[in-house]
Structure prediction request, 510 residues.
Amino acid sequence: MSIVIAGFGSSGIEKRSERGIAAFALDAALAALADAGVTRDDIDGYVGAPFATNAGSPHAEGGDEISLKTVSSLMGLRLGWGADLFRRYPTDMVATAAHALRAGTCRFVLGLRALYVAPGLDYATAASERVFGADQFTKPYGYTTAGARFAARAWAYMAQHGATRDDLFAIVDLSRRNAALNPEAIWRDKPLSFADYDRGRMIAEPHGLFDCDLPVCGAQAFVMCREEDLPQGGHPARVTGFSGFARPEALWSMSGRSVADLKTAQLYDGFSSMVWEWLDGLGITPPGGAPAFLRDGHAEPGARLPLNTFGGALGEGRLHGMGHLREAYLQASGRAGPRQQATGPALVQVGPYDDSSFVLLEPATV
Amino acid sequence: MKQSMSDTSQRPQPVATAETRPFWDGAAEGVLCLRRCADCGRLAAPLAPRCVNCLGDVFKVETLSGRAQLKGRCVVHLQPLPGRDGPLVIVEAALHEDPRIVLIALDETGITETALPGAALRLGFGPVEGSHRFAMVLPPEDQG
Prediction:
């Protein structure tokens, strides 16, 4: 039994908005339904991952987070099954929906992820009087601020492998150039020279302003079903593999594919340095080899393994991996327009380092 | 507008549990204390309710050397802590006794300015801020 993503939709993506998060969520959901060729009444399953990951989040339902109950209520859905995955990623949403569809629990699953920048709050920091749990060993040191832990890891990688700020810029530069072909991308008309990049203020060294993805208001959504249920006019890409970081090899054993089969890779880039980790970690490059791979042009469109062909989060905006999933889907289903690369296995990885998960999508050979 | 009804003029204050209290009790005395599994001898991270190796729940509190290796380092330019100006140097320190346990500390004296990954560190605790003392990087001991 093959499981497919049947369609995908995006809201507009904005830095700030007068409209609330629910407006973005419903825009994306309706676009996904239309793309897949289903109606609201066909949707009987739902999967989300509503957590706002920034330290300054008020975690307000319908404010900067939106969960199943609100989406369902505002859209008038009649769900037989649904789940929100706490602190998980769009890749986990796909795996969860695939399980429900394989089990026969439902026929059409709507997957939705929305992000929102709440006005008047400090996005990246949060003053707190008392700290609990794991926070007691991190927040008194500012370690949860501004991606400090990712910067610390980038520092070690750069020191160990001789990578430089030029190597970080290579990622940002590729993202901006790829974003020029993505109509949704927040930075689509904003090329960035090294001089511009270098003038960006430091956030958490070695990351400067442009090494960080831009927090945005936006949402994207997909519809999944069994391949035999694909509606007329749907645009399928097959889900052929998924796995978590501790067993990345499960991606290959499940799909019967290998790294050599990949045509594109969408690797999570909340901070620029993060893409190195899984280029190395999946064996696409030898340990420490990722910066040279980028420097030598192997990640460019049309090259050995085109990377973040939609501009990544660094080019499109911070949709927390949903943009990566959408691009993998568009590439696998042959619908990426001017960004289209060779069609074939399309890898998507979402999550920071050792909390990542992976999905492999492939063309449906109907 | 900041949050009301809370004192955010000092560093966030830990709320300890039974698992983390030995660490903070040690910190109050200026020493690094963790718990060691009484069954298999594996050192436990401060939050762990049971030994990650054998899942036993009997521990003995142990005073550690404070020696560590520099695992990661960053300089944060957004100021997340009250009462401090300028960039904050945050380090990840892998403990000598078990480098799988990594603690976060501040370097407020520039000791790690030119350090590389793996550099030897000495961890200790700063002065009381609020009602707690927090981990910090100390100057290296005299080798003489």
User: Anything to note?
Assistant: Residues 266 and 348 of chain A are 5 Å apart (CA to CA). Residues 21-36 of chain A form the longest helix (16 residues). Chain A is about 30% helix and 15% strand. Chain A touches chain B at residues 120, 124-125, 127-146, 148-149, 151-156, 159-160, 201-207 (CB under 8 Å).
